[in-house]
Write a structure and sequence with these properties.
247 residues, two-stranded antiparallel ribbon, single chain, 11 strands, alpha+beta, nine-stranded mixed β-sheet, elongated
Length: 247
Amino acid sequence: MRTKRFVCFLTMGLVALAVAQPATGAPCTWVTPAPGPSADAATLMMVAPLGTQQNDWDTAALKGCLQLKSLLTAGNSKLLGFDSPADASLAQIGMPFDIYTVGIDKLRDYLPGKPVEPLFEKIDARFYPLSVAGEVRSSLVVSQRKSTNELITTSWGLMRLAKVVTKYRTSPNQFIVWCPDLNIHLLGIHPDDTFILIPLATRKSLGLEEGVPVSASVAFALLAHYARTIDTAKPGWLRPAHCINCN
């Protein structure tokens, strides 16, 4: 159910224009960001194309990348982050992110000082940035189908999310934290024994600034207070549409 809801929100989020760049390189090869505090789309480096050492998730991502050729037209390519269908055919796949959700009910029950790990629920999906000529343009999401355990690509797009998670990534072990009811995304990391979250958009009312790390306990204390102000039983209340750049 949560995977299905995640895919639904992702599909609603395919809104933005890509910046055109010359297309170079082979179709659907693999790239990985160079770790470091200043890592961004320009620091992407080529790695080997898909081989026998790649896992089933990466195999599904490659299939999803190759599917772009049949999905894109001159009319919808920019909606999905590419300058043209030919541009998208040269897409390169970045390192994936695991995805964890944090529900509003758990947030409401959270109190400062309590462990944060119980808030998280891992969903059966992975987020793969897609780049062309060293610039992150788009992404795809590979999800596990519950009925058959099949791994399939369920969404393409989310350009800003792809760009910003790549920009702030400093470790291959980082993961996306998504609070769907609050329309908030963060980047999670475990440096030593400290749990840190990096906001992926500025939320001034919550004291969160894009790219500025904050301890998970502080971040969730702020989000818990906000969650308790929301009356989900109020007639007409709807979960927010996906909007990664809402401030």
